[in-house]
Structures are given as C-alpha cells and as structure tokens.
From TrEMBL:
The keyword Zinc does not apply. SUPFAM superfamilies: Aldolase. InterPro entries: Aldolase_TIM, DeoC, DeoC/FbaB/LacD_aldolase. Keywords: Cytoplasm, Schiff base. Gene3D superfamilies: Aldolase class I (3.20.20.70). This is Deoxyribose-phosphate aldolase.
Length: 214
C-alpha cells in the first residue's frame, strides 16, 4: 500500500471555522507532510507567517466560493491580495450563473485573465467546478474551457463517487492535475485514485480528531 500522505490536501471551509481549528489543520499538514492546505482568503496571511521553513505543502485559497458569482474585477482583486499574502495555489470557482448563460464567453474570459495573473506570480492556477449542477456534456465542456485557459489543476466539488471520479480523470490530459473531493472514501478507494493518476485527494470536512496513517 502506497504512502498517501503527500497526496492529501485539507480544505477549511466551515463557516464557523475557529483559529484553533486553523492551527490544528496547519499542525496536521506539517507533522504528516501533507500536500496542501486551503484556507479562506481572510486567513492566508496569518497562515503564511506560521507556515514553517520546512513545510513544503502548498498554501491555497478559494476565490469566489462557493458559486463564483462575483464580478471578475472583484475576483481579480481578491486574487492579487491572496498572492501578496503568500498563497501559492489559487482556486477559482467557476461562475455557474455565467456558465449557463450560453450566449456569452464570460467564463472563458475570466479564466484567461485570472490564469495570467496567477502564473505571473508563479503560483498554481486551479479551476474549481461545483459539479452538482452539471450534466456530463456541460461538465466535460467546462473542464475543456479550463484546460484551454492553461489551468494547472481541475477540482471537482461533488459528493464522492469512486467510479465517477475515475471517469472524470479519463477526460483530463496528463499535463493537468485533478483534485478529487474524497470525504468518506476508504483507504482502498484512495489508493485506486492515486493509481489512476489523481494528483490531489481533498478532504473538505477536516476535524482535529482525524488522523492520517496512510
């Protein structure tokens, strides 16, 4: 069984998130050498100050959570501030409302603008899609738009299903990473994802009681 710790990415998105929980997650990342930690934009600067010189994980944040409805100018400012505060992985939520307004190219234009800004600062550009609202053709097309914009990672928000995750991986070229939300997955399922080439296993409901013995 492969060691999975360096594939695990914790995301803290609970509206009642406390600073104690934040530092518990940071400690878990440091002690277990996890792949990354994603925090709300408000917390990026503080986490960067206490990140630790030997911590090689990526410090990420989410722009436009949860449905990407903000104007592109607002997302751009939030991205600039996150990069300045020390984020190394910027996750941009796809604007679902703009996506389903099919007479425009708003989503494509937004990806191009933000992707250029993020890559200029040598950070990772992740596009996140709330796939709960997408049928298969729309999800495939949204992934294609993100890939065409030069994305580094695609992240799929949806309740975990091993077969669906493996199917989505088949749509993505080897040059682009896939992040799978895997709350509730068992160790065998996690190993299947890694064997299939999934780069990040995302735990979105992390609690301080969780342990990682992979």
């Amino acid at each position: 069984m492969q060691n999975l710790s360096n594939f695990i990415e914790l995301q803290l998105s609970n509206p009642k998130l406390s600073i104690e929980e934040m530092y518990s997650a940071l400690s878990t990342v440091q002690q277990n050498k996890l792949a990354g930690l994603i925090v709300p934009p408000f917390w990026v600067k503080k986490m960067r100050r206490d990140w630790g010189t030997e911590n090689t994980a990526t410090l990420g944040t989410v722009i436009g959570f949860p449905n990407g409805y903000q104007r592109t100018e607002v997302k751009q400012l939030e991205t600039e501030l996150a990069l300045k505060d020390g984020a190394t992985d910027i996750e941009v939520m796809l604007n679902t409302s703009a996506w389903f307004s099919t007479q425009n190219n708003w989503v494509k234009i937004e990806f191009a603008k933000l992707g250029k800004l993020i890559h200029q600062q040598e950070a990772f550009f992740t596009v996140a899609i709330d796939a709960n609202y997408f049928d298969t053709p729309n999800l495939q097309q949204a992934i294609k738009e993100a890939i065409d914009a030069g994305v580094d990672y695609i992240k799929i928000y949806k309740p975990f299903d091993i077969n669906e995750s493996l199917r989505i991986k088949e749509w993505i070229p080897a040059s682009v990473g896939l992040k799978v939300c895997a709350d509730g997955a068992n160790q065998q399922e996690l190993q299947k994802l890694i064997n299939a080439g999934v780069e990040r296993i995302c735990i979105n409901n992390f609690t301080s009681s969780q342990t990682f013995s992979f």
